[in-house]
Amino acid sequence: MPPDMYVTTHIHTDGPIPGPHSLLTLTSAAFTADGVLTATFTTNVRELPGATLHPISLTHWRTRADDWLCTRRASRPPVHAMTAYARWIDRIPAAATFVTDTDRPDYLFVYWYLQRFTGRWPFAGTLPEAELHDCLDCTAYCSLSGCRAPHEVPLAHTS
User: Fold this and answer.
1) pTM of this prediction?
2) How many whole angstroms separate alpha carbon 48 and alpha carbon 148?
3) Residue ranges of domains in the chain
């Protein structure tokens, strides 16, 4: 059996919690246990019906207008976006472990959206990002210019 895979994730939202606020962009990168990037996934997600843009998020997005527009391009209904994401995870050729930065809301949004729109959590486990820092670069590759690091590779958009 192949070694476990680690899936790092980076999101953009329009507020601090899912439900009242929406997931806007979801980007993940799958790494082997020795840190080799094997696959990426990214999608823009439409806002939830009735959800609102949080005032603090509004202030943030006003400073990144081009990035805001990128998050709205080709956005998909949440059920389609999350179903595609769950299928991508299912195609990873090993047990996928979700890697998360515990200081950010990534886990909260991804868990809530997967449960709400697919009814399941397709990961074998969850690991705090800090536990992997010494063994691999856990950076999820974000396509937004405001998030790009100089070493990042371009993302393959999944439809």
Assistant:
1) 0.83
2) 26
3) 5-131
